[in-house]
Amino acid sequence: MVELKKRWRAWLRAIHRDFGYLAIGFTLIYAISGIAQNHIEDWGDVSFKATERTIAMAAIPATTPEIVAVKSVADAVGMGMPTAHTRAGDEIRLDYANGSKATAILDPSGTTVTVQQHARRPFIGLANWLHTARHKKAWKYIADTYAVLLLYLALSGIFMIKGKLGLKWRGTILISTGIAVPVLYIALAGGPDSQKEAVAQTTTDEIHSVPVGIGPPSAKKPETPTPTLTPTPTQEPDVKGPGSAVLVPLPPDDDQ
Amino acid sequence: MSDKPDLDRYPELAERWNRRNFIKSAVAGTALLGFGGALMRLAADDLTRAARAENRADGRPRLPPGQRVLEFLRPMGGEEGDGKSETFRLRVHGACKKPFEVDYENLLKLPQVEKMADVHCVTGWSMIGGMWKGVQLKKLAELAEMTDEARFVILEAAHGFTANIPMKEAMADNAMVTYRINGKPFSIDHGAPVRGLVPDLYFWKSSKWITGVKFVKNDAPGFWETRGYNNHADPWKEERYG
Questions:
Q1: Contacts of A47 in chain B (CB under 8 A)
Q2: How many CB pairs under 8 A join A and B?
Q3: A27, A87, A126, A128: which has the highest count of C-beta atoms within 10 A?
């Protein structure tokens, strides 16, 4: 009986060890991209590196043939001829094979070209892509398997060591601490419902505190000098399009 | 005199001593990072304070509660479309008499508007005073002859993404499909070539890489709305989550 118990624990440890090895790659992917996702409000999406530069060039008259205008813009950009281009309204858009884009906005006083490049970062870009299983059929099941591995690692860890370093003392304290942290957080923060109630109450108070019939933006003067802000949105005059557009008729939707 | 024990004489203390030093370094590093982050926040707070001191024409504060101002739009991810104006098509369909499809060139031939609008991301940042150029959703509704039964507008985007907009916000003057901000085209991570703009709702409703505008009778919660985010998403009521 004693031998069986010993062997049982040895198997548990051996599987825990091997599952641990298997989990390393996945854990790096999910943990690092998880941190990136947690901080998306601070850092934005770090999957890509985006660069943008602006080039000023001479005005391109509206009568310039399209191919000549495209070549002028391509020369100014210095990346060769594009794989595709669109001339629409007051702009010419160039698309390059590497995903770069150059958009020239034509104006009688001069042309402004915005060159935008966008590249996926080597590790974090792929890790973030893998983190969500959406639209990845096989990866969904691989991710599920990893979750099962994690469950095994967590549960088997409870029984791997016996004695003072196991459940009898250290293990119990650390497991309780690990469980207590989320439980306490929920208890102290009041959970998602109470957060919503608090938000609703605050918002109602704020709306009620706004004087009725208050004047236009900036009517309320700040007490200390503040940076200049762009004026509050107001109704702007419409800018009419240059010509009549071609709209391709569609059949009614099946559900209409 | 150093308080470091003689580890050669007492090797059994080495592990604990090393662990203590590791924890000290980790705490110091974290504090340093936190301090740097706090300084960056303080610098950005001037804009936030200025925005909080203002009110909109409708009496609401210019900056909704729980928001801070950033100078630029922040990329928030999502499954990108191909970003090419050459392949862009916008389907305007659903509860309307004349559904149609329009390409990029012809979209720019429709009546254009340029409007100033503030946008508010559900994660807590706002960008204020952007000048957005595009075609109003109400103009698209007019061209398609939207029927009276339509109550919601669904903004459709690449890879099946959708966002549902109540008619009131969709038909506002500042709601549009837009291809330019502050005189510049959108980069691919901000929805190039054309994205939606519904500034009076949280910014996830302003679908990037837009492919369609659908008028519907019955509400159809979209991608984020079916994943725990609020169905309406009014920033002034902090309708962030469902």
A1: 77
A2: 221
A3: A128
